[in-house]
Amino acid sequence: MMKVDKEKCIGCSKCLDDCLVNDIIMVEGKAQIKNENCFKCGHCIAICPVNAVTTSEYNMDEVKEYKEKEFSISADNLLNFIKFRRSIRQFKEKDVEENKIIKIIEAGRFTPTGSNQQDVSFTVVKDEIDKFRELILKNLNKKGKSILNNLRPETMKFKKYAEMWMQMYQDYQNESVHNDRLFFNAPIVIVISANSSINGSLASSNMELMANALNLGVLFSGFTLRGAKDKEEVRKFLGIKSNKEIVTAMVIGYPDVKYFRTVPRKEADINWK
């Protein structure tokens, strides 16, 4: 429940004006939250100039007062940071500290979600990463065989991937773990699931930025998603709830490669109206 401290409230109506669902009214010059249509977005908490709004739904100790020195980042630095990120496929044999894993997840937890659903879940695969690798490679091998056994003109574009998946599984069977082309010997994989793929994707993007800020490297593993798709044993292993879908699989570790510059991209496809 959202609550306004009437002793603190100065009746400025900023919370009322900013409430998307019109769930706040003024009573005798004080704001009052009806808690009828409220979906706990927290705008009223953030906008109140005298910190009069609280909620029993969440931990209010997490609320931070705005301080420019701690919150601001220049637009140019942010853009350069985004341009410099690379997908990493070379990792050091070094564990990722738990406090860094938590910060990465926090970046996902505080990413906005549609209607404040907060539906994004995180599965950190660390101790059982070898089991997870085997599970995904086994499924990719089956997919590869199925593709090659049913080649048609429209599926020819998948032939190279089918052959690659089967070879990856064969390498694993031969205990060629040093040739791991799925997780590239990274120490952890974080699997993001959500009711909404948009919510999960937005969270994943912020999580990658946080990982980069922590001097870690990330690979969004499309092969892992392929090996997990429609596989109940994978969902069970990861603890994915029945109402959620696997959105991304983030392979994370310390990079064993150094880049010196950004790379070019296509011109932006923009329509001005």
Automatic annotation (TrEMBL):
* Pfam families in UniProt: Fer4_10, Nitroreductase
Keywords of this protein's UniProt record, alphabetized? Iron, Iron-sulfur, Metal-binding, Oxidoreductase
Q: Which GO terms describe its molecular function?
A: iron-sulfur cluster binding; metal ion binding; oxidoreductase activity
- Specify the protein name: Ferredoxin
Q: Where is the 4Fe-4S ferredoxin-type domain?
A: 1-28, 29-58
In terms of Gene3D superfamilies, this protein maps to: 3.30.70.20, NADH Oxidase
Q: Which family does it belong to?
A: Belongs to the nitroreductase family.
Q: Which CDD domains match?
A: nitroreductase_FeS-like
Superkingdom classification of source: Bacteria
Query: Which PROSITE patterns does its entry note?
Result: 4FE4S_FER_1 (PS00198), 4FE4S_FER_2 (PS51379)
Lineage of the native species? Bacteria, Bacillati, Bacillota, Clostridia, Halanaerobiales
Q: Which organism is it from?
A: Halanaerobium saccharolyticum subsp. saccharolyticum DSM 6643
